[in-house]
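>> received
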Amino acid sequence: MTTVAEIVTILELLAPPELAEDWDNTGLLIGRRDAAVGRVLTCLTLTPDVAAEAIADGYQLIVTHHPVLFRATKRITDDNSEGSMLLQLIEQQVAVYSPHTGYDSAANGINQQLAEAFGLENVRPLRPTNDVADLGGGRTGTLPAPFPLPEFLARVKQVTSAKYLEFCGRPDAKVSRVAVACGAAAEFLKDAVTLGCDTFVTGEARFHAALEARAAKINLILLGHFSSERPAVENLATMLSDRFPGLHVLASACETDPLTIFL
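>> returned
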């Protein structure tokens, strides 16, 4: 039987902890390293629904992109929904691991997957780590030929299965050099502008980021936090399944985008 420690070793190869941001809380967050694992569930966010799914279906390990216990915790009780959820997982001996920003920035991580899905070439980090060209946050690359903005928007929506997109830019604009940063990553907008990108794609951003993008004359595309990262969670399940053929590994079936559209 495979152990938690063996799976953690592979997860750390796929999403090196040293790539995680200093403020992050990655790694094994709940569980014993020597515990046996036969079933692994991946998810974007560990919610009570996902926890209930894992317990009901007999999973021994949850790999959640967004970490639990993110802020300093002094007590775990059933006085709130997160505490109650964590207690249930501990009582059922379900381990929890989070790769988070290490997976965002990994060589084959979320931003790399998005860049490739968008059809970018000559892909490299948007914000290199310690001046090392092949390591760092976000991604930037070029399209084989310029795309009209509406056509590029259609491609982004299709490959991420996003319900809708928000964008800032002229409908007649062209897209050639693109920057990508998954999740809520508007802080990378300045990097995109500095590198001469004409388009920046992220999950979500504040209103003032859109104003900054308009002033800088760079297309800003918001595809939703969930849509920017959930496909990579499904890909992570496939990666683990390939590494551990004897394991049952699936992405959560109950997880959905908490936001819906009213038309």
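>> The mean pLDDT is 95.
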